[in-house]
Amino acid sequence: MRASAWITIAIMLAAYATPTHAHQARSGWDYPFECCSEADCARIDAGTVREVRSGFVVTIAPGRHPMWPTERREPLVLDIPHQKARQSPDGFWHLCINDAGELLCFYAPGGDS
Fold first, then answer.
1. pLDDT tens-digit readout, 34-87
2. Residue 8: is its pLDDT beyond 70?
3. Are strands 55-60 and 93-97 parallel, antiparallel or unpaired?
């Protein structure tokens, strides 16, 4: 293979290489890598969260989270213990779930966790 072909390949690989990181919340802070891979996390409405004695009950209607699309027929209901809640850096509720609806991370505003 000619040197110019190797150089072209190297340039193409460098152009498409991106550092491994999670995406940002709307307010600009980065979700930790262990919580998401570009789509798993989203800010959720305060009305979807109910605090109970053991923690939080979060109810996500279909289409109200990127990982729980409108094709889902039933709402996702998660029971999240207090010790699983993280402090929200921006004062809003955030939920990170996988495509099966399993909890990855949950963020509560100050004073709520």
1. 998 778 999 999 999 999 999 999 999 999 999 999 999 999 999 999 999 999
2. no
3. unpaired
Question: Do 63 and 76 touch, CB atoms closer than 8 A?
Answer: no
- Amino acid symbol at 41: C
The two structure tokens encoding residue 51: 């605090």
Q: Please, which residues bridge with residue 106 across strands? A: 85, 95
**Cα separation values, 53 from 56, 61, 76, 113, Å:** 8, 23, 20, 11
Q: Identify the DSSP state of 111.
A: T
Kindly list the domain boundaries of the chain, sorted by start residue.
22-108
Q: Report which of 111, 107, 113 is spatially closest to residue 43, judged by C-alpha positions.
A: 107
pLDDT for the residue 24? 86
